[in-house]
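1st attempt posting a full record on here, be nice pls
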Amino acid sequence: MEQRTLFQRLRPHLLFIFGLFIITSIYFLPAWQGKELQLQDVRQGNAATMELRQYKKETGQFPNWTNALFGGMPGYLIAHDYPNTYVGLTAAAVLRLFPRPIDVVFMQMLGIYILLVVVLSRNNPGSEDDKSTALSGTARGWLAATGSVAYGLASWNLITIEAGHISKILALGYAPGMLAGLILCLRGRYWSGAAVTALFTCLNISANHVQITYYLFLCVGLYVLIEGFRLVKSGQIRQLLVGLAIFGVTTGIGMASFSKRLMVLNQYSKETTRGKSELTSTTTAAATPGQAQTSDSAKPADGLDEDYAFQYSYGVGEALTMLIPNLYGGLAGQGGLDSKSDTYRALVDRGMAADEIIGQIPTYWGTTNGPAYAGAILVFLFVLGMLISRSTLKWFMLGGLLLTLLLAMGKNMLWFNGFLFNFLPYFNKFRAVTMTLTMTPIFLGGGAVLALQTLLTTKPTFKTVQRPFLIAFGLTGGLALLLALVGGSLLDFQGPNDAAMFGAEASDILRALQSDRASLLRTDAFRAFFYILIAAGAIWFYLNNKLKASLLLPILFVLNTIDVFSLGRRFIDSKSFIPRSTVDSAFEETPADTQILQDKSLSYRVFENTGGGGFMNDNRASYFHKSIGGYSAAKLQRYQEMITYAFSDNADNILNMLNVKYVIASPIDSTGRPIGEPVPQQNPNALGNAWFVQNVQQVANADAEMAALRSLNPQQTAIVDKRYADQLTGLPATLTKAGTIQLTNYSPDKLTYQSYSPTEQVAVFSEVFYRGNEDWKAYIDGKEVPHFRTDYILRGMRVPAGKHTIEFRFDPPVVALGNTLDLVANIILILLVAAGLWFSLRKDNSSIGTEATV
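the predicted structure (as tokens):
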């Protein structure tokens, strides 16, 4: 057969990729018109990084520390320069050419397109699969594009985007590419496998969502087990070992290209709520009755609490939303009802403001945020693929689907997830396991294209595949039809929070709501049956030689695209976009902010106590001020413990020692209810940036520190753990507390004080203690001196008599080391990708060489 040029081989794929870009652009058309999604988490992130961004604007570089939230935390966790990550910076620059979220969704589609093309490519010559995998580039393009649209517009991904979890979506875009590299490596296509693996590993790490990366590696392990078993069984042990070695080395190179990010994250995580606490359950039980752990196994020594980790878990029955999206109603937190609904009429009958209320009633009665839908057609094809495909990849697709579903079910599959939580390394560092549902469409699409690949390459008659065809249709289309007809009598349609919405006495409204939910199920079940019936009919015509493959594939692509495109509009449509100016107004300066910002003191903190979700779950104040609250998925362990176990008992003194100069709160009436707009209230007892104490109280451990903190007067006494006893040797029992100490120069990661005292003093600094004497270092008159942790979270230091300049500098050694490693790894990565492309095009043309005409 005629050997085709490289451009001829790539041309159909380039056209399909361009088509995916057009579909993405049409779906998110308002983004091209200058509008934006609200993206709550992105706005929270913008608020958290405001101090860092302002500092960079003034100095040209990000500081390593920020005081904008939680009283202070490492700034390199939320905004930082990575100057030597050339590959990641290039990818980010390309993405910036397109508006959000078009950039990240198109990247998702492109990533899985590459994976599916690899899945559908020829296997290594001589293997069992090689004879049945010859498809033309156009055929592979249609199949890969079908799975790509389903992945990019899958409901859980759209829900994730609407919430503003952009880094998660970007990581999901790069994840399929890494799986493609693994498949290539184990197929013996070492150069192309090495290049793809290294590149997409680097990009996945650049997305900065470690949890998705962790789950991706679980899927990698699953494929290695399945494909490794096949290779060992067929005597291809050398290929397995070489492939694994190449994959391991190139994965390491890809990860090393973001060494600094991984190193600082590893270092920081040990200090957060995901790390090990020094408090015992006895202490936490005494502080928070009824909230202590019921058993030692419930909370690991190093990691999250099990209940907290599995707080968001998908219901077992909710897995069927892959087939029928409204099986459990619509989207949590939003309405799906109108004036024609039974609920609306029930509200009217009660004399309630139905027009105002109806849009706020959630129709979703599941346990989390919504359905995990990627197309009923894909579900039908997936089941068919599991029954007719001979490729060992089908076991990976089935295993990946089951793995992601089981993980998402969290506490509802505790026999599985509980085991992983207690024994799998790092598993207990993560929460919100439902995010694995964003990966499920990868395997759903993979299984679906394997079904079509088998039908196209083996060209069976309908009689040959009649049994598996009817089984697949019955398990999907038949189930959808059954639920459409009798589902209303099989389910109760009661959500866990229904009674709380209206009260148990509003039984008429609750019955109406259940009726509406049953109607939503019925409509979507018929909808799913319709799509499956049309798709199955098209395949039936193909198997009976009444429809050519050149028409079958476009028909299935169009049907699937219409399905997920129209379904996705329930979650993100043109109304979801708002003018950019409106998005920015989320941080509009209030009169309270304006008044506080008139205070030009070098550094002070603000406590915004306006209710809502609580000051430890909101970054609004951080946009304008140095806040003692904030929003982050990984807060410093000690700071969170101080808030949880001591703040309510000793709030005034804790605010004072945190140098809270202003409290933003609403005035209250005689009954204690807030009235009017929030106003700033100045705290006259704030202790300032630093102060001398009269007494130093040494305690035995963290439990004793916490106990003392609940009643501490920080102006007079400093609590110090006995581990710092060597720094207190020879100190008088009572200090004269004479002299002055004040902040004279401020930048986020460098603080300068001037002190004067006729005698030696102990100073407490209103700054968070973090890796003291390692990353944060103290200097007196330019000479490094030790400092200690005091009052559980602050810094303390012995200050000699006389006049002195005191400095604290945050310059973590890991940052400089990480920059060097980033440079070396990125140079190696660029050379590796270039070499991989060169050699794969010259010597590994079997994957894109002479093609079949199917």
